[in-house]
Amino acid sequence: MRLVLLGPPGAGKGTQARMLETKLQTPQIASGDLLRTAVRNRTALGVQAQAFMDKGALVPDDLVLGMIEERLSQSDAQSGFILDGFPRTVAQAEVLGRILAQRHEKLDRVVAITVPDEEIVKRISGRRTCRSCGAMYHVIYEPPRTVNVCNSCGGELYQREDDAEQTVRARLQVYASSTKPLLDYYGRAGFLAEVGGIGRPEQIEHRILSALGIA
User: Fold this and answer.
1) Residue 123 near residue 13 (C-beta atoms within 8 A)
2) Where do the H-state alpha helices sit in 42-164?
3) Does residue 92 contact residue 61 with C-beta atoms inside 8 Å?
4) Phi-psi region of 162 (alpha: psi -120 to 50; beta: other; left: phi over 0)
């Protein structure tokens, strides 16, 4: 199974990708993880990426795609993969298509997890992080026993800058502007399936498996 999982920040792509990895015995490939690993291991691509990151610049598409191509060539991805949140643009999708064509492969399905913006804002802006130990909480779904105090170490809980409501809404606008053309692109190609991302993780997994014709 060669699968792409798309969805806005906070939609649960990572959770679903990990669940599907176990269910399908197919490796999850997340571009963010690849980038962090390449930088940590000081690979040739990682060193180039680090130079952009040190300047506060976005890592160019060609480096990210190079990491994706390198990862897809590894033995465990020969019979399938789950791309988590990649590609993000039509340009990336076109290059991915060419990479797969060179390997005489193609995608089986692109699944977009859809969640209303207001639910995303609630999910992300409600997160709180412990300054001391890094433990994560949520003011609605997983509140601490004492407001703004970590259950584990007693440290102060705070809201990260990128979890603030204004930041989340800006990220959603960026996602919508870049991903709507991508959804149209995969829809025209006949690969796209959209599934609702509201509910328990197991319910969402069942919807994805149904879209894949497995459940």
Assistant:
1) no
2) 44-54, 61-72, 90-102, 117-125
3) yes
4) alpha
Residues that are catalytic: 13, 88, 127, 160, 171
- Helices (DSSP H) in 55-106: which residue ranges? 61-72, 90-102
Mean pLDDT of the chain: 92
Helical packing angle, 117-125 and 165-189, nearest 10°: 140
Residue 200's Cβ-count burial label (10 Å; 0-12, 13-18, 19+) is exposed
pLDDT tens figures, 99-114: 999 999 999 999 999 9
pTM (two decimals): 0.85
- The per-residue DSSP string of 11-35 comes to S-HHHHHHHHHHHHT--EEEHHHHH
Q: Which residues pair with 2 in a beta bridge?
A: 81
Q: How far is CA 214 from its chain centroid?
A: 22
